[in-house]
Amino acid sequence: MHLIWVVLIGFLAGLAARILTPGRGPRGFVLTAVLGIVGSLAATLLGQALGWYRPGQSAGFVGAVLGAVILLALYHLATRRD
Predict the structure, then answer these.
(1) Closest by CA position to 34, among listed 63, 5, 7
(2) 7 three-state secondary structure
(3) Cβ-count burial of 82 within 10 angstroms (0-12 exposed, 13-18 middle, 19+ buried)?
(4) Is 65 exposed, middle or buried (0-12, 13-18, 19+ CB in 10 A)?
(5) Is there a contact between 35 and 26 (Cβ–Cβ < 8 Å)?
(6) Which pLDDT tens digit goes with each residue over 13-49?
(7) 34 to 13, 49, 67, 70: CA distances (angstroms)
């Protein structure tokens, strides 16, 4: 059941990140969910490294969205055409 919640929250965070970030990004359910899940993991690891979260505590939905927005912005920078 935990895995289903992770995928659902990751998908919603990925959708929110795609809405907040302009430009064309990765499309599809799987890529959107992966974007949100990886964004959540990145926000959790960064938050734990900075002391915002205790070990074992996750970033939450807002942190997942912010992490996904940062990842999507990095994606746009890496695939930008001059």
Answers:
(1) 7
(2) helix
(3) exposed
(4) buried
(5) yes
(6) 888 888 887 766 666 677 777 788 888 888 888 888 8
(7) 10, 22, 12, 14
Residues in Cβ contact with 62 at an 8 Å cutoff, skipping those fewer than 6 apart? none
Joined together, the tokens standing for residue 31 give 């890529």
Q: CA 18 to CA 45: how far, in whole Å?
A: 22
How many Cα atoms sit within 13 Å of 63 on the Cβ side? 16
> Do 68 and 14 form a contact (C-beta atoms < 8 A)?
yes
pTM flag (> 0.85):
no
Cα separation, 17 vs 67, in Å, equals 9
